[in-house]
Design goal:
The complex is a heterodimer. By secondary structure, chain A is an all-alpha fold. Chain A has one domain: 3 helical TM bundles of succinate and fumarate reductases (Up-down Bundle). Chain A has five helices and no strands. In chain A, α4 runs antiparallel to α5. Chain A is elongated and about 70 Å long. By secondary structure, chain B is mostly helical. Chain B has one domain: 3 helical TM bundles of succinate and fumarate reductases (Up-down Bundle), CATH 1.20.1300. In chain B, 68% of the residues lie in helices and 4% in strands. In chain B, strands 1-2 form a two-stranded antiparallel sheet. In chain B, a hairpin with a 5-residue loop joins β1 and β2. In chain B, α1 crosses α3. The termini of chain B are far apart. The chains are: A mainly alpha, B mainly alpha. At the A-B interface, α1, α2, α3, α4 and α5 of A face α1, α2, α3 and α4 of B.
Chain lengths: 128, 148
């Protein structure tokens, strides 16, 4: 045991900076979503490439197929989770003012949620 | 020491031999490293391509919402994406996406404890670069054949 040379309590030290034992969840979810996105993005890239030059009708037909709609919804949810988590880490690393950091992270969260919901609604409107 | 206001302070906390804390720089920073090395260049590229890919996600949302809105909104997206700017942007995005994906696989291997030695790190880095080029060209080959 190191000698405690400050009068700060362990709780005080944690509040100042450092581990609060919740750090691995964010990290782990970023890995989990990245693994899920590997097949989803491969599928989407291939499908998008095959849709190149096709018109409105074939795009609607493709989105409207139940399998594609479900995979699109999964892609939207997981991709926005991964993006929000990744952008949060970038902000945490480079924004040093506490309020600007918090504001930027909450803004990213809000935008990601709204865009994900808009995209999901679009898929559902076409598919249902 | 008081509560830190700036996370950079964490790299400035040393201890005297008697254990009392003192503010002093602990490690050299970016300027002492060659940032064009394969290791550090690919590391920051992984982050940059991740940020770039979020723009790609915006285009996906635009495309889906326009498709749901109707033929005229969809035609606007199609017009933009098939313009020179749009095509250049999509090409850049596909390259960034492939890099981020392949580099991400490299990171997953590291997370599982594999490939940490320097020769393997350089070899996997070269593989990611070559893979990015090949996969990007293959993607566009498929798109061009589908278009034709």
């Amino acid at each position: 045991m190191a000698t405690n040379t400050t009068l700060r309590s362990p709780l005080g030290r944690v509040r100042g900076l450092g581990s609060a034992k919740g750090g691995t969840h964010h990290w782990w979810m970023q890995r989990v979503t990245s693994m899920a996105l590997l097949p989803l993005m491969l599928w989407f890239t291939l499908s998008a490439a095959l849709l190149a030059g096709e018109g409105y009708g074939s795009a609607i037909a493709w989105i409207g197929q139940p399998v594609n709609a479900v995979l699109l919804l999964a892609t939207i949810g997981i991709a926005f989770h991964h993006t929000a988590a990744g952008l949060q880490v970038v902000v945490e690393d480079y924004v040093n003012s506490e309020w600007a950091k918090l504001g930027a992270i909450l803004t990213i969260r809000a935008i990601c949620w709204l865009l994900a919901l808009a995209a999901a609604l679009a898929v559902l409107r076409i598919a249902i | 020491m008081s509560i830190m206001q700036d996370s950079r302070e964490a790299t400035m906390i040393g201890r005297r031999t008697d254990g009392t804390p003192i503010r002093r720089p602990l490690s050299p920073h970016l300027q002492v490293y060659d940032m064009m090395q394969m290791t550090s260049a690919l590391s920051i590229s992984g982050r940059i391509t991740g940020v770039v890919w979020s723009i790609g996600l915006l285009i996906l949302v635009w495309w889906l919402v326009a498709a749901a809105a109707g033929p005229s909104a969809f035609a606007t997206v199609q017009w933009f994406l098939s313009s020179w700017i749009g095509m250049l942007g999509l090409f850049g995005l596909s390259a960034a996406a492939w890099f981020h994906t392949l580099n991400g696989i490299r990171h997953l291997a590291w997370d599982a404890g594999h490939g940490y030695d320097i020769p393997t790190t350089y070899r996997s880095g070269r593989a990611v670069l070559i893979g990015t080029g090949v996969a990007t060209l293959l993607t566009w080959l498929i798109a061009i054949i589908a278009w034709g």
